[in-house]
Amino acid sequence: MTDPNSQDKNNFLYPRSRYYGKFQPENLVFNANLQEFTQKISYITCLETAGKLSQEEAYQQIRAVWKKLKHSKKELAIGVNKEI
Fold this sequence. Notes:
Radius of gyration: 16 Å
Largest sheet: none
Structural class: mainly alpha
Strand content: under 5%
Helix content: 55-70%
Low-confidence stretches: none
Shape: flat
């Protein structure tokens, strides 16, 4: 059975903002990826600040998340001039 507060918890833990840019599917996907990136960075920095992660572990995790976002940008061809 689903907890009725489950959606509230998800909205609190994983907030999403609306996308206000030019509508293109790749822009929408990248915006979602960017929001996920910022959420993960926030958790990693909080864990490092609280002493749950070492500086090196936090750095490695941030680096991995950054590479994933960078790869996403490249795959979606964001920022590349597309000529018709």
